[in-house]
Amino acid sequence: MLRGGKKSYFAAAVCVITLTSMVTISYLRLQRPSHLPKIIQEGSRCRGRITNSTITALKDNRTFIISPYFDGREGKVTRVIGIVHHEDVKQLYCWFCCQPNGKIYVSKAKIDVHSDRFEFPYGATDIVCLEPQSCDPTHVSIHQSPHGDIEQLPRFEIKNRKAETFSVDFTVCISAMFGNYNNVLQFIQSVEMYKILGVQKVMIYKNNCSRLMEKVLKFYVEEGTVEIIPWPIDSHLRVSSDWRFMHDGTHIGYYGQITALNDCIYRNMQRSKFVVLSDADEIILPLKHPDWKTMMSSLQKQNPQTGVFLFENHIFPKTVSTHVFNISSWNTVPGVNILQHVHREPDRKDVINPKKMIVDPRKVVQTSVHSVLRAYGKSVDVPMDIALIYHCRVPLQGKLPRESLIRDTALWRYNSSLITNVNKVLSQTVL
Length: 431
Prior knowledge:
The chain crosses the membrane at residues 9-28. By secondary structure, the chain is of the alpha+beta class. It has helices spanning 6-30, 184-197, 211-223, 257-267, 292-302, 415-429; strands spanning 38-41, 56-57, 63-71, 77-85, 93-98, 103-108, 110-113, 122-130, 139-143, 156-157, 168-177, 201-206, 226-230, 239-240, 252-253, 272-277, 282-286, 306-317, 343-344, 355-359, 364-367, 372-375, 378-381, 387-393, 406-407. It is elongated, with a radius of gyration of 23 Å.
């Protein structure tokens, strides 16, 4: 049971009021005359090259467009998920073309670089424009000037224009797959665990992976479980495999992970009841419920008006193993067998364990990796006795002796179904 005294409720109320005020102020700023859409041309046709690329560089080569989304929560606006240089990009404009009259409107954009840049020169950015009231544009172009030729500008489809009914309950967002990723066995085990726990869709922002991993991804795409979003960010920017800026000439951290997560939130805003933000080596493991649907139903009843649920990360070092579930046919598959790693590191004094999230995407405005930056409603820390993140990776406390680790076999509750399902996938892909 989640508990909080009067002080907690007062603090939550203050947070809600503060966020509501921020949203209101943000919308009022957009309502200034300079940001209102202006007709610059009439009787034209909506022209320009429609682009389907995941990442599109504008001519200034300081602005990169991922995708625009209609966002009716803060008025009639288009919110473009992008990446910009936090100092060099001073102004941008949205060019809307209204059909069938052919009127072209230009709106000055509010450029909102996310606060969690971690000192890199480029950061995830919301490019927000008021739409014309007289039409619901289907495409938008982004330009550095309110003047020019619309035929020379790439056009982007505005997603989320039409309301949809939820097609899935849970979507997992994995960003980003890079470094010739080849942890095949653990990836298959994670996906099969997601499915056991109630996931219908896994979205992967893929930069690159091994040929064997490509084969596994192809299987899951054809099955309908996985959707691949191409993520060639290193074709545009010098990327770092670290999240911190190391003053080494790189442009953006961790292959643009934060931008991908924000895009995944908006991409699934109207089609998934919940979005899970985690990595492929992480599993949110319920301890009091059989699956995520039951767990989230209980958590929502206990925490009304909450849109963000945070789960604590716990390391199960892959360097410490057990002989149980040493399945011979799996030994030829590259990667980690998570069933053999059931010893977790103890909490460290004065160190807060990072968290990952299950969110209601309709209540999120901006997200980071371990928390949301802007949201409607409350965020709740889920106690460890309800669920924890099983994170099998290299140890953080590598010098601890085995007897100092905590044996935790909660994962084994699913061993029978997991082994059966993994064997089915391996027989059709790897073995």
